[in-house]
Amino acid sequence: MSSSAMVDEIFEALSNPYRRQLLLSLLEHNPQEDDDRDPLNVISADTEPEVLETELVHSHLPKLEEMGFISRDERTDEISKGPNWSDIAPVLRLIDDHRDELPDDWL
Predict the structure, then answer these.
(1) Cross-strand bridge partners of residue 33
(2) 62 phi-psi bin (left φ>0, alpha ψ -120 to 50, beta other)
(3) Residue 78 three-state SS
(4) Complete edge-to-edge strand list for the sheet that includes strand 32-33
(5) Helices (H) and strands (E) in the chain, counts
(6) DSSP characters for 6-44?
(7) Phi and psi for 42 in degrees, rounded to 5?
């Protein structure tokens, strides 16, 4: 994949707040294991858990897995860094290092 295409994939992965939070959570805790609806503990109080669970299972996780940024074991609900993690990790570290400078609703 060209570097331009990889940059596009990185920005696509980060274009959704849930995916941003999920990827940022993997910086510190890899793998993520939990059998509840919110395995990464990022659901906000105003999000309906059933809606997010559907989006998670049918959209967010498959997209990130296809991009190679995560790997997941559906049997154990384990989410871990994928084979292309090193491509997105520097951007995630930059975001994490500057969290306090970002708008509140960005993360």
Answers:
(1) 78
(2) alpha
(3) strand
(4) 32-33, 78-81, 70-73
(5) 5, 3
(6) HHHHHHHHHTSHHHHHHHHHHHHSSSEE--SS-TTS---
(7) -120, 5
How many whole angstroms separate alpha carbon 6 and alpha carbon 10?
A: 6
pLDDT by residue for the chain (107 residues), tens digit each? 778 788 999 999 999 888 888 899 888 877 665 555 555 556 566 666 676 677 777 788 999 999 999 998 878 878 899 999 999 999 999 999 898 888 877 76
pTM for the full predicted model: 0.79
98-107 exposure pattern, b = at least 16 Cβ within 10 A, e = fewer: eeeeeeeeee
